[in-house]
């Protein structure tokens, strides 16, 4: 079973809104460096942080993760 790729989905959802990492971090209540660590996959969010990100992005928490390897490859090719 593949591992979910939260960072890619969150990045996609934020970019779809025209938000930068700074904007999303501010909206969620994290520092830019904390959000950066999540985006770089150097840190994993707590459940509460993941819930806050989902709430801010107006998606269900389970919609934050990508499990399909083909989707991950497609997302990574987008930048």
For this structure, the CATH topology is 434 Repressor (Amino-terminal Domain)
CATH superfamily: lambda repressor-like DNA-binding domains
Number of domains: 1
What sort of overall outline do the alpha carbons produce when their principal axes are compared? globular
Cα-atom radius of gyration: 12 Å
Distance from N terminus to C terminus (CA atoms, Å) equals 24 Å
The tally of beta strands, per DSSP, is 0
Structure description:
It is built from 5 helices and no strands. The relative contact order is 0.23. The model is unreliable at 68-72 (pLDDT under 50). The chain starts with 5 loop residues before the first helix and ends with a helix. It is 59% helix and 0% strand. Helix 2 packs across helix 3. The chain has 79 residues and is an all-alpha fold. It has one domain (6-77): 434 Repressor (Amino-terminal Domain) (Orthogonal Bundle).
Topology:
Elements: H1 6-16, H2 21-28, H3 32-39, H4 47-57, H5 69-77
Helix pairs in contact: 2-3
In short:
The protein is an all-alpha fold and 79 residues long. Helix 2 packs across helix 3. Helices cover 59% and strands 0% of the residues.
Short key terms for the protein model shown above:
single chain; 79 residues; mainly alpha; 434 Repressor (Amino-terminal Domain); 59% helix; globular
């Amino acid at each position: 079973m593949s591992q979910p790729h939260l960072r890619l989905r969150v990045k996609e959802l934020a970019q779809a809104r025209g938000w930068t990492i700074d904007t999303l971090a501010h909206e969620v209540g994290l520092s830019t460096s904390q959000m950066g660590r999540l985006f770089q996959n150097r840190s994993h969010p707590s459940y509460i942080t993941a819930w806050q990100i989902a709430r801010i992005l107006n998606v269900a928490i389970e919609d934050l993760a990508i499990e399909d390897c083909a989707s991950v490859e497609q997302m990574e090719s987008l930048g």
